[in-house]
């Protein structure tokens, strides 16, 4: 059903609160990883990816904070998100956006696999024709 304006505002506030909370947790974990790196320990591949994602999120947070700090600029946020979809930190993504990204990646991978399969088949035909 249709939600009231008050309920939509409360849901958006909860969404941003949860996003900032998750970003704070990621930042604390990333700080520990940097501390470990500075003391000569090696990070696993998963830890390195998480550290890079968190650093990218912190850099994305700077333009996002302008929308939060400047009065009434949050009304322009949907326009900017349409123009720059990767502007929000990853902790602020909704499940539907994550699923949409995964579908796009999967379709791109399938197209690439199809292309490579056709190329290999064509090369096999050429080799067979050359040897025959």
Automatic annotation (TrEMBL):
Transmembrane segments: 58-81
Superkingdom to which the source organism belongs: Eukaryota
Any GO MF annotation of the entry: ribosome binding
Letm1 RBD domain segment(s): 43-128
Bilayer disposition of the protein: Single-pass membrane protein
Keywords for the protein's UniProt record, in alphabetical order: Membrane, Mitochondrion, Mitochondrion inner membrane, Transmembrane, Transmembrane helix
A GO cellular component entry from the record: mitochondrial inner membrane
UniProt subcellular location: Mitochondrion inner membrane
Pfam families linked to this entry: LETM1_RBD
GO biological process: intracellular monoatomic cation homeostasis
Primary localization: mitochondrion
InterPro entries per UniProt: LETM1-like_RBD, LETM1/MDM38-like
Name of this chain's protein: LETM1 protein
Organism: Pampusana beccarii
Lineage: Eukaryota, Metazoa, Chordata, Craniata, Vertebrata
């Amino acid at each position: 059903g249709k939600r009231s304006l008050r309920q939509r505002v409360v849901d958006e506030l909860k969404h941003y609160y949860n996003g900032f909370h998750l970003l704070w947790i990621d930042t604390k974990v990333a700080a520990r990883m940097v501390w470990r790196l500075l003391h000569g320990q090696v990070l696993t591949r998963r830890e390195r990816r998480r550290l890079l994602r968190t650093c990218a999120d912190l850099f994305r947070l700077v333009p996002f904070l302008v929308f939060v700090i400047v009065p009434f600029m949050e009304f322009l946020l949907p326009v900017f998100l349409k123009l720059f979809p990767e502007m929000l930190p990853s902790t602020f993504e909704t499940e539907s956006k994550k699923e949409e990204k995964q579908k796009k990646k999967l379709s791109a991978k399938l197209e690439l696999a199809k292309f490579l399969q056709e190329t290999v088949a064509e090369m096999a035909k050429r080799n067979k024709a050359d040897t025959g």
